[in-house]
Design goal:
Blueprint: H1 16-50, H2 57-83, H3 92-109, H4 119-150, H5 163-168, H6 170-182, H7 188-209, H8 213-216, H9 223-227, H10 234-342, H11 348-388, H12 391-422, H13 427-443, H14 452-459, H15 463-478
Helix pairs in contact: 1-2, 1-3, 1-4, 2-3, 2-4, 3-4, 6-7, 10-11, 10-12, 10-13, 11-12, 13-15, 14-15
Length: about 475
């Protein structure tokens, strides 16, 4: 059972007097249908038996009952579907066809047998067919009433062409009805309004362009008349050129957008290719930088090895200088020994000093030999390092050898200092003699060529003190000081 909101309401929507009136109308329609069926049944059955060659009267009556029952069934079905708000428009056409056939058969049953129609024969034929016709009219009115009560907002009534128009102007009405059906015009009023607007538009064109307006008026102005057979209104027809231009503009814009999108995609692809190329170039550059860095590191290592070799050579040169100084000291010691032998009458302290100096000279000779061997070993080690491309290892080895050499030289110097201690020389005299020996070893006796920084570093004194010691050493050498004669 449908819910109350959607259930069709027929009687409930009428007032009490309206319900009574509707009941009386329905009762009268039933009485009218009974009278019509009774009269039609007898007349049509006899006519079918006598004129339509039905073999028996029973078969003629059965034919008549079938036609009348078919009409009733279709009418009830049409009313029921209208009541349920599901009307079927084409059902009325079979009803009209069968009712028309019944009217014709009833009228034909009153025809004279000889075929000579008299005036009263036409009246009789009309009288036989008027009751079925009246029944169909009542049924149509009842169906329309039911439909309007059940569907008060239905557009079906508004879409119908009034019956009087069919009689007053059949051909224009048919053209109007045809346009309504072909182009789905919703209401009769709208169809009439469209027809009126079109006629007014045609008159206005004639008023503006004259009788020959079809040749003088532009094609766009004539569009409403050209497109009227296709169901377009005046506004819709006049809007066609503008809509066509808008479609063309949209199509052109779409093409431009598509071209712009294609250009953007091409630019993006080019940018991606450029980015890829830049990344590749960057990778190559990075590898080049890496190789360059490795090359620079190798160069730095080679320079370090060269520096180490130069340092070793410098150490070797210093060792040679030290050896030369030691040799000079040895000669001086030998001279002192000879002088000591000659001075047998010298004091016992001088003899001990001479002995000590002789021992120191012997130590210096041995140190010089050791330094020479170490220098040769250092040169051979440097050559081996360059041949094996192990600059850093050789540099470290040379540094270690130089350190050992410096340690040995320091030992020799320490023993010389001990000898000077035994000779009981003052620290200042020792410092002056050390500067003098340094000048003889490095500059050949040119004390002024010695940098003050080196003197200060060797003696561990300030620059001013180093300057005094350098001046005193120059004075000492000027008096003919020789290490082997001290």
């Amino acid at each position: 059972m449908p819910p109350a909101a959607t259930r069709p309401r027929l009687v409930g929507s009428l007032t009490r007097p309206q319900q009574i009136t509707a009941g009386l109308i329905v009762a009268a329609a039933l009485v009218l249908s009974g009278i019509g069926l009774y009269l039609s049944f007898e007349h049509v059955a006899e006519f079918a038996h006598d004129r339509l060659r039905f073999q028996s009267l029973d078969k003629a009556r059965l034919f008549t009952v079938g036609v009348d029952v078919g009409i009733l069934v279709l009418i009830v079905l049409d009313l029921l579907l209208a009541w349920l708000r599901r009307p079927v428009a084409w059902i009325r056409y079979p009803v009209w066809l069968l009712t028309g056939a019944t009217v014709v058969l009833n009228a034909a049953s009153a025809a004279p047998p000889e075929g000579a129609w008299q005036r009263m024969d036409y009246v009789a034929g009309f009288a036989h067919g008027i009751v079925p016709l009246l029944f169909i009219v009542v049924v149509e009115v009842g169906k329309t009433g039911v439909d309007r009560i059940v569907r008060p907002d239905s557009d079906e009534t508004a879409a119908r062409v009034p019956l009087y128009r069919w009689f007053l102007a059949p051909l224009p009405t048919f053209a109007l009805w045809r346009r309504m059906r072909l182009w789905d015009v919703p209401t009769y009023a709208e169809a009439v309004q469209r027809d009126q607007d079109l006629r007014v538009y045609r008159v206005m064109l004639e008023r503006r362009y004259g009788r020959n307006w079809r040749a003088k008026a532009p094609a766009d102005i004539r569009l409403p008349l050209t497109m009227a057979p296709y169901g377009l209104t005046i506004e819709q027809a006049l809007a066609q050129p503008r809509e066509a231009e808008e479609r063309e503009a949209k199509l052109s814009e779409a093409k431009k957008e598509a071209q712009a999108a294609a250009d953007a995609r091409a630019a993006e692809r080019a940018a991606q290719a450029r980015i890829t190329a830049l990344r590749t170039t960057g990778a190559v550059t990075a590898v080049e930088h890496e190789v360059s860095a490795a090359t620079q590191q190798a160069a730095i290592a080679a320079r370090a090895g060269l520096v180490a070799t130069e340092r070793a050579a410098e150490v070797e040169a210093q060792a040679v200088e030290t050896a030369a100084a030691a040799e000079a000291e040895a000669r001086r010691a030998a001279a002192e020994k000879r002088a000591a032998d000659d001075r047998e009458a010298a004091a016992e302290a001088d003899q001990r000093a001479a002995g000590t100096e002789a021992a120191a000279a012997e130590e210096r000779e041995r140190a010089a030999g050791i330094l020479a061997r170490e220098a040769a070993a250092t040169r051979r080690a440097a050559e081996d390092r360059r041949a094996a491309q192990q600059a850093e290892k050789d540099a470290a080895e040379a540094e270690r050898t130089a350190a050992e050499t410096r340690l040995l030289v320091a030992g020799i110097e320490r023993r010389a200092v001990e000898a000077e201690d035994e000779a009981r020389l003052l620290p200042r005299e020792r410092a002056v003699r050390k500067v003098a020996r340094l000048a003889l070893a490095r500059t050949g006796g040119d004390v002024e060529a010695l940098p003050l920084e080196d003197i200060a570093d060797v003696l561990g004194v300030s620059t001013s003190t180093a300057s005094e010691r350098r001046r005193e050493a120059a004075d000492l050498l000027a008096t003919g000081y020789q290490p082997d004669a001290s």
